[in-house]
Amino acid sequence: MRFLVVSTLLVFGFSFIKTEVVNSFSTCSDFFLNGQPPVIPGILKNSVSQDNNRYKLICQKYQNAYKFATLYDTQKKIPVFSAYRYTGSYKGRPHIPWMIEPQLETYGDAMREPCVNQAFPGDYWAQKSTLRRNLTRGHFFPNCHAADRITAESTFTLTNTAPQYDSFNKGSWNKTEITVRTTMNSHCRNKSDNISAYVLTGAVPSKANLLNKRVNIPSSMWTVFCCYNSKTSTWESQAHWADNKDEQNEEKTINATSVTELQMFMKKTYGSAPTLFHGVDCTKI
């Protein structure tokens, strides 16, 4: 039956990423600081989903190697977060088709519509002309943070994206990705003087703002990293978050803040504050 599912999806011209939907993030723990994923109340604890029918753990595998990890909300059809280790950046942008995750679908689902549990390219094609100019696929693990071409290609899966307003995606959020990259390049050096940082990027879902009547358009985006600075022999971190909205001011920037402040911001969504990093003090900016 699995062959029939894939065949049905191929009719729609989809590309597939060879990822793995797993029961525990221990399968790809290298993308988390000290091998420990965040604790998010009611969603993720001890590397395991607290609602496996809704929240899926994905070890994003591409070209026979794990590249990053994603906690995916099949109800909202966007990630809760993607996690990756930053080790330097590849100069260039791949030009490949957007991919989907076939393991998120089942035989019965595929008979009703192409993708029941995730976004698919048609969600963006179906936009009305006014919306189509305003919404785009926003990376969680941005390809500009990938260390090489293959890793950059692996980020082009819709399980690593959510709808973002185009002016936000190309404006203040893009500036933030570049600023964070520059900061990690200069501050995040391990004892061997190699660039190394652990990054989490996620979204706060909106209450009822939908793309194509089914894919949640996040109300805000957040990103945070923690790394060891061998020059100062300290652990350092930096967090950013901002509303996902149409930006009229092209000069807008997003101020850096602390992990603690981000966790308190996230508390408004989850009822109690999550723990994003474990084992070291990541409170210093």
From TrEMBL:
Domain DNA/RNA non-specific endonuclease/pyrophosphatase/phosphodiesterase positions: 64-272
Molecular functions (GO terms): hydrolase activity; metal ion binding; nucleic acid binding
Pfam families linked: Endonuclease_NS
Keywords: Signal
Domain of life: Eukaryota
Coiled coil: none
Residue ranges occupied by any ENPP1-3/EXOG-like endonuclease/phosphodiesterase domain in the UniProt entry: 65-272
Signal sequence annotation: 1-19
Protein name: Endonuclease domain-containing 1 protein-like
Record organism: Cyprinus carpio carpio
Taxonomic lineage from the root: Eukaryota, Metazoa, Chordata, Craniata, Vertebrata
